[in-house]
Every structure is written in C-alpha cells, then in structure tokens.
Amino acid sequence: MRLIGTLIVLSLLIPSLALGFECVARVKDANQAIAAAEKMSSKPAIADEVKAKLDEARKLVVEAEKDHADGAKQKSARLHAASARKAKIAKALAEEAAELAKRM
User: pTM of the entire structure?
Assistant: First the structure.
C-alpha cells in the first residue's frame, strides 16, 4: 500500500519537474533568437516594426523568467507552463523581427 502511495505522489510530481526544466530551455532559445535578430538588425535605419517586435520579445522573456521563478517557489505547474508559453512567443517574435530585418 505504501508503494502505491509513493508511485501516485511521484506520478504527480514528475510532470511538474519536467515543466520546470522546459521553461528554462525555452527562455534560453528565446534569448538566442533575440540576440540573432539584434545582430541582423544592427543597421541604423532599422524599422520601428522590428524594434517593437524585439522590445515585446524582451518583455515576454522577463515575464517568462518571473513566472519560472514564481513557479519554482510555489511549485506551480501552471506558472511553469505560462513561462514556457511566453518564451515560445518571444522566440517567435524575435524570429519574425529577424525576417523583417533581412528584407530591409
């Protein structure tokens, strides 16, 4: 009976731990995409649209890092999932900004 209880607790804990590691990886990916987009958009005549997308991506990364830290403190899978989601959106915005910068 004790073994079954332990297995149930572990089965509930493992997804939360996995989400905790995923959001860190997604934030890292987003930061790399932002850095790559900034290199491509180092031209002085960069469009306001590219700047706006990069600013929004940076803002989302900060929020994702905050959600990750709060999720770790509160042991909240919901906050870790929100962190990963925001980081993925930030990466997409950075990649879009890079594409726009290429066309300029």
Answer: 0.76
CA distance 81 to 94: 20
Q: Give me the DSSP letters along 31-71.
A: HHHHHHHHHHT-STT--HHHHHHHHHHHHHHHHHHHHHHHH
Q: What's the CA gap between 73 and 63, in Å, rounded?
A: 15
Contacts with 9 (C-beta within 8 Å, 6 or more apart), sequence order = none
Whole-Å CA distances, 24 to 28, 38, 49, 50, 94: 6, 21, 28, 25, 17
Domain boundaries, the chain: 15-102
The pLDDT tens digits of the residues spanning 71-90 come to 888 888 888 889 999 999 99
> Residues 6 or more apart from 71 whose CB is under 8 A from it?
19, 20, 23, 77, 78, 79, 80, 82, 83
Number of H helices, E strands in the chain: 3, 0
